[in-house]
Design goal:
The chain is an all-alpha fold. The protein has one domain. α2 runs antiparallel to α11, α4 packs antiparallel against α10 and α5 runs parallel beside α10. The longest helix is centred in the middle third of the chain and has 24 residues.
């Protein structure tokens, strides 16, 4: 598994922009449009984020401890990249965050905490279904703030994706209003992150991603058991932070600057059907009929939208 992640991460690093202070050895130019570049990066970010279920399944720790070390190792990984690209001048790069950058950091960190808290108050299915409304919520906010009117194809794809996720998770799952409200807050946070990335090109990518990961760790610390970790679990925790936090955040922030907000949200809906694929591949847990059917609907909806010429 570690080898496959390394092989995946190496070519992805070549697609990071030169303006992100990535070391010269990792820079590479691709003959593709800015739009296609954005689609590719957000898709790869979603692929990285979809491993969350895999890591939580593989590491037998409580959610708060997982979130703590995910943030710590993610922040450290990003800081190393920042140091490599700026000859060790890491702290200086945080000076250019600005108001928009700090808002992004705060919203991202709070969003992760709301996600974990929601899971402790309601079912995974209800949280996942609420998460699947992100494209629609993002479309409304983008239309209200940016006057970025979503096309009927985007709205249709978002609605079909929502149906697919609902089918996967089961509409009959019970929960409570507190958990649902927390999940709604998480959804709003993610939508706001997409809007900021889309509209504020001046926000420095790596410092924002680093502080975002660090803030989520700090907020999780009071509820976690940081040293209740077995020796054999540390390697997986490091990998969790590097892949799911660092790689996912960096690719997401860069890619979401290049495409409309609703398209960013629509692609991230692939997280739901991708998550059981990882568990199936690594733990041989065959997904149920409804999971396969719902996941197929999401894949078809997103894929059909992305290949529609007139969208």
């Amino acid at each position: 598994m570690i080898l496959s992640v390394v092989l995946l991460s190496y070519p992805l690093a070549h697609w990071l922009d030169m303006t992100m202070q990535i070391p010269l050895v990792l820079r590479f130019s691709l003959p593709m449009s800015t739009y296609c570049h954005g689609i590719l990066l957000v898709t790869c970010a979603t692929l990285a984020w979809s491993t969350a279920g895999l890591f939580t399944r593989a590491i037998a720790l409580d959610n708060w401890t997982l979130l703590l070390w995910r943030g710590v190792f993610g922040a450290l990984a990003i800081a190393v990249v920042m140091a490599m690209g700026n000859r060790g001048h890491v702290l200086r790069q945080f000076q250019g965050l600005g108001i928009a950058g700090w808002i992004f950091v705060f919203v991202s960190g709070v969003g992760m905490v709301l996600f974990i808290t929601a899971l402790n108050h309601t079912s995974v299915a209800r949280v996942s279904i609420m998460y699947a409304t992100v494209p629609l919520v993002t479309a409304l906010i983008a239309w209200w703030i940016l006057r970025e009117k979503p096309t009927r194809y985007a709205i249709a794809a978002s609605l079909v994706s929502l149906v697919g996720v609902s089918l996967m998770m089961g509409l009959s799952e019970k929960g409570n209003w507190v958990g649902d409200l927390l999940a709604l807050g998480m959804t709003l946070c993610l939508a706001i992150m997409m809007i900021i990335s889309r509209t504020r090109a001046e926000v420095p990518i790596l410092p924002a991603a680093c502080l975002s990961a660090l803030l989520s760790a700090a907020l999780a610390l009071p509820f976690s058991s940081p040293f209740n970790v077995e020796p054999e679990q540390w390697a997986m925790l490091v990998l969790f932070g590097v892949v799911n936090s660092a790689l996912g955040l960096i690719l997401f922030i860069i890619g979401s600057k290049k495409i409309p907000a609703i398209e960013t949200a629509l692609i991230t809906a692939l997280d739901a059907p991708l998550a059981p694929v990882w568990v199936w591949l690594l733990f041989n847990e065959v997904p149920g009929v409804f999971t396969i059917a719902g996941g197929t609907i999401v894949f078809v909806a997103v894929g059909a939208y992305l290949v529609t010429p007139s969208k």
